[in-house]
Amino acid sequence: MTGQLDHRRFQELLGVFALHALDDDERAAVERHLEECPRCRQEVDAHREIAAALGHDIEPLPPHLWDRINSVLPDAPPRSPELTVVPAAAGSHPAPSVLRPTRRHRMRAATTTVAVAAVAAAAAVVVLGLSLAHTDAQLSRSQQALGTSRSVVQKALATPGHRVVSLRTGDGIHVATVVLVPDGHGYMLDSTMPALAGGRTYQLWAVVNGTPISLGLLGRHPAVAAFTVGSAKVTELAVTIEPAGGVQAPTVSPVATAPL
Amino acid sequence: MEALGELSDAQLVVAVGRYRKEALAEIYRRHAGAVYGLARRVTGDAAEAEDVSQEVFLRLWNQPDRFDPARGTLRTFLLTQSHSRAVELVRSRSARARREEREARLTAAAGYDLDREISDLAVAQQITDAMASLPADERRAIELAYYHGHTYREVASLLDQPEGTVKSRIRSGLSRLRRSLAQVQEVGR
Could you report the per-residue pLDDT of B24-80, keeping only the tens digit for each? Predict the structure, then answer.
């Protein structure tokens, strides 16, 4: 069969592909084939492991190399304090303090144009953390990454001083477990929240001084999520259902809460 | 971030996704020696090796999602990129003289030898042994392709062998290496 011959031709190239020993045209053809052939992908992955083992020469590093790399890394949001309280600009009405979560989302940051009246008054406030132009695929990949490191959660559960709280609906039904560790990290696990239709997302909030601060999006199928509250004094966690992409302030009452 | 040294590579990459520079620094601490070392060996040039290393770590910082722990280790991921970029530099560079000089040294060498300081001696020894136990044709084809950045067509011409033969020797050589390394217990992250 032509198909089999073609496939054998690709198989013969897998070793040289893994060693980057192909001309561009053949390389591109193999790359396309790999997109749809899991078995060949597996073989390439195995060859790559051996190739990496062949590259085991460990050189003493030039001392300045890290500084050089460090200096070209794009700026990240400030790390500490974990949540930066930005005081509202002068105005009679006390605008809500808005905290910037440090969690970075994979998609390009989209500054929302949702203008909550009181927040709009505090023109100096820039909510960077709400780069919420997520797709479910992106979220599930990061959840998958967390899932493959469930040891992170187990470690949290073994940390002295950790707290386990229950997110419950208004009727008292438990929908998710949250583990909080003293260093300010938190994990939401074992969610039984029903999947949402397209165009909507679950959003997680921390209530600080009576104001809900977004901790991030949980997506349409929440399962496991990691977030940070830092040293902020959080009195309650809450989950709302919002339009896909999230919002700066909750538009509805929470579907589940956890008093802390 | 506390206890960075205890986190797995996959956990560190998740942290990189959260703009944790110290996580990238820890990944650098664990793997930059190998990334730089391979680039240095293939390009034969310290400055180019630095460029390659910078690209690899910068790419990890900007696109941590590219790493899929299900497909292999972070070390493999980083070294694959280091090798790929180093080979590109070798091929695009008009420093043919340098390649020819390296080849002259290769053909003069009696056998496979490592003449530089290696910190992970156990792994190094396993690789050396595994390579030494390969049939000479397979070993030379792999060396020319991997360490010298030749395409298989160039290897065929250098070794005066048919292209199909070179392709299949490289493939079977890699499989043979995998089998002999699998026999040795590996301790990895």
Answer: 999 999 999 999 999 999 999 999 999 999 999 999 999 999 999 999 999 999 999
Contact A54 B62 (CB under 8 A): no
How confident is the model over B87-125, as pLDDT tens digits? 999 988 755 666 666 665 554 433 333 333 333 566 677
In this prediction, the answer to ipTM > 0.90 reads: no
Average pLDDT over residues B10-15: 94
Structure tokens at A157: 């559960």
Per the CB < 8 Å rule, is A61 touching B38?
A: no
Rounded distance between C-alpha atoms, residue B74 and residue B178, angstroms:
18
Question: Residue B145's pLDDT band (boundaries 50, 70, 90)?
Answer: very high
Nearest to B26 by CA among B6, B10, B4: B4
Q: Which residues of A touch B62 (CB under 8 A)?
A: 74
- Is A55 in contact with B174 (Cβ distance < 8 A)? no
Minimum-distance CB partner of A65 among B19, B53, B170: B53
Residue with the bigger pLDDT between A151 and B187: it is A151
DSSP B166-184: HHHHHHHHHHHHHHHHHTS
Supply the pLDDT for residue A2. Answer: 55
Model pLDDT, residue A27:
95
Residue with tokens 């052939």: A37
Residue A14 to residues A7, A30, A43, A110, B35: CA-CA distances in angstroms? 11, 8, 7, 40, 23
Please say whether the beta carbons of A32 and A6 come within 8 A.
Answer: no
- Closest to B69 measured CA to CA, from B114, B11, B140: B11
Specify the DSSP class assigned to residue A85.
E
Nearest CA in chain A to B29: A66
Asked whether the beta carbons of residue B146 and residue A61 sit closer than 8 angstroms, the reply is no
Contacting residues for A87 by C-beta, under 8 A, at least 6 apart: A97
Calculate helix-pair angle for B9-16, B46-62, nearest 10 degrees.
70
